[in-house]
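DM from R.C. (forwarded with permission)

"hey, sorry to bug you on a friday — could you get me a structure for this? deadline for the figure draft is monday and I only need the backbone to look sensible"
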Amino acid sequence: MAKATFGAGCFWHPQHVFDKVDGVTATWVGYMGGGKPKPSYLEVCNGTTGHVEVVHIEYDPEIVSYDQLLDTLWDIHDPTQQNRQGPDIGTQYRSVIFYHDAEQEAAARTSKEGLGATGRYKREVVTAIEPARKFWEGEDYHQKYFERQNRPGIFASLFGKRKS
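My reply, with the result:
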C-alpha cells in the first residue's frame, strides 16, 4: 500500500470523495503541516498551530495511480484559492499537497504545472507542494462525517455537482 495526503478545504468532503475511488483502501481526516504536537480541532481552527485539515489516504498503486488521485484532488476543490474553500476561510483550509517521496513530489509539480497550462482557471493555481510531516489523526467525530450524518450529497447541493 502507498499513502497520499492532501489539504483541500474542510476535510469532510475530500474524505467522502476519496473513499469512493477504486483502489483507495482507507482514509482518515486529521492535521498536518504545523508545529503543535497532538493538535485538537479547536486548536487548528484558531489558526495558531500551522496545521491544515487534511485527508490521509492509503491506496493500492496497482489499482489507482498517484496521478489519478491528483486528478481527483483538482476536481474537488478550487486550487486558485490558497486559504479558503467555499465558505471556509483560514490557513487550516489551505490548498496543499503533502508528498511522501520524491516520485510524488515530481508528479505533484508536473500535475500542477499541467493544470495551470490548461487555461481551466483564470487565476494562478496556488496549491502548495510540501514534504509530508507527522499526520495527526482527527477526532473520532470527524471521521466519515457525512456518512454518519447521512448527508453524503451536502457538497453537491451547496456548491453544484462535482465529479466524485
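R.C.: lifesaver. The domain at 2-159 is CATH 3.30.1060.10 (Peptide Methionine Sulfoxide Reductase; Chain A).
me: no worries. Confidence is low (pLDDT under 50) at residues 154-164.
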